[in-house]
Specification:
The chain is 73% helix and 0% strand. The protein has helices at residues 2-8, 14-27, 36-64, 85-110, 112-127, 141-162, 167-190, 192-197, 203-207, 209-234, 246-258, 264-285. α2 runs parallel beside α12 (264-285). The protein has one domain.
Length: 288
């Protein structure tokens, strides 16, 4: 169980959970309010899809040669020989099946838009590392994260509660996706040398480390502007409570700008903490 937990990468699961929190918090002010059954299904489905994505990434990055004994990040179970690639892939398919089961109540509530979201999310979970054109290997990782861990996750959660999509929900989707993108870019910045050797053409590999650090600055700070716009549009000034996490965002940026190699693991942990803090403060602020 410890090995499977390691493969699930629990420190990164904020990227799946926080968008559900944001979408539900915004939906609380819309009729008919939040359905806790829909919330539970959406959260479970999002977590299962991300875990499946992590499993697929673990197995296929090893097979493609992107994960080697020289990697600077946390242990990957396939590369370390803790679990076979075949077993990890089976675990991924089980997670995707369970995510589809969680999606049945969402489909009954939201109709065909939820079917599109579900099918696209499951396809993207595999297509991120696998398939004939793996997104992560062609510099499309940031776009993938921004769309699926941002607009789709927040917008889909908001829609399944309220059966509508609003400008604040899209802005919140950008905020959640941006914070998740920070995690990805720090990870890619740390692994830039091994990615070059394995021909994994992330944006860091394509455009350099300076570009990656600029991405981190933008995506770590822009969510606060997005929330300020939401507060202004909805006259919901309690949402500005998220500004209490701005110092942590600055710390993430400073750490990312100053760190190299394995030192970026500390920045990665801080970025995960930032996403949790941002999400929880957003939920609390929405109550006022």
């Amino acid at each position: 169980m410890k090995q499977w937990l390691l493969a699930a990468r629990p420190k990164t699961l904020s990227a799946a959970a926080v968008p559900v929190f944001l979408g539900s918090a915004l939906a609380a002010d819309e009729p008919p309010g939040v359905s806790w059954w829909m919330f539970t299904c959406a959260l479970a489905g999002a977590l299962l899809i991300q875990i499946a994505t992590n499993f697929i990434n673990d197995a296929l990055d090893f097979k493609k040669g992107a994960d080697t004994g020289e990697r600077l990040g946390p242990v990957r179970v396939t590369q370390a020989g803790l679990i076979s690639a075949e077993a990890v892939m089976r675990g991924a398919w089980i997670c995707l099946f369970l995510a589809a089961v969680c999606g049945v109540p969402l489909l009954q509530r939201g109709g065909w838009p939820m079917l599109v979201i579900g099918l696209a999310s499951i396809a993207a979970a595999y297509g991120y590392t696998g398939g004939p054109y793996p997104l992560a290997y062609h510099g499309l990782g940031e776009l993938f994260v921004l769309i699926f861990f941002g607009f789709v996750a927040v917008g889909g959660t908001f829609y399944v509660h309220s059966l509508q999509l609003t400008q604040p929900a899209l802005l919140a989707g950008f905020a959640a996706g941006a914070l998740a993108t920070v995690l990805l870019v720090i990870n890619n910045l740390r692994d830039v040398e091994s990615d070059r050797r394995s021909n994994k053409k992330t944006l860091v590999v394509r455009f350099g480390e300076g570009f990656a650090r600029a991405e981190i600055v933008f995506f770590a700070l822009a969510p606060f502007g997005a929330v300020a716009l939401i507060a202004w549009i909805q006259n919901a000034w309690g949402l500005l409570l998220v500004l209490a996490s701005l110092p942590l965002a600055v710390m993430v940026v400073v750490r990312a700008l100053r760190s190299r190699g394995a030192e970026l693991n500390r920045a990665l942990a801080m970025a995960g903490a930032l996403q949790w803090a941002f999400g929880l403060l957003f939920v609390i602020g929405s109550l006022f």
